[in-house]
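(Protein data)
===
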Amino acid sequence: MEHAIKQETAFAGIETSKLLLKAVLISGDETLCKVLENDLAGYRWLRSWLQKNDVNAMGLRVCMRLDAPYSEVPARVLAGMGMLVCDAQPAQLEAYVRGHGLPGNAAGGAAVLARYCADTRPALWTPPSPAYVELRLWLRRLHAIVAVRKQESARLDAHLQAGQHALHALVRQQIACLDAQIRQHESAILAHVRRHPGLPKPPELAGNYQRIARYTFADSQAGGQ
């Protein structure tokens, strides 16, 4: 019973960066901080650290800024470990920060996220479906290939203007290969969407890939079904 009561008063906030996670745990009257690597080993260390402080990761409410870079993967993994991941919505979090007289740049800090989590009990985040995650990865890969094609096109014009005909011909061949890859990726993405109707419209589609965007997506920007 004593452990259960302590678990009910335990909350965590996690601040993400490319390489690191900063976690702040509020458990009873204690506030603890831990910095870990933003990778699978770091997520496991986080779970071990919680256990060492007599907090079970299973069922622990953890607040994150899921609009922040490098937050998507740790959120999915921590949810898979049984933690109750909460998405701190920017507007509500900023209102909380203002209401407590904190500086605006504190909104993404782990300590503020932990206190916000304890005070407001934000709604739980639902991890996206594997099909939605795969769609976003396909689109990011397509975006990378399209970016390389734009770079090669700029070089093509430069070689032609400089009279470098051999290089011009070589770059044309490379662009043709990139065009083939782009078509393959678009076909694979369209086939994926057909296999999984009703997926939300990913943010990677915004302003890009009109042939793909013509297909009907759900209005939600959150995880898929």
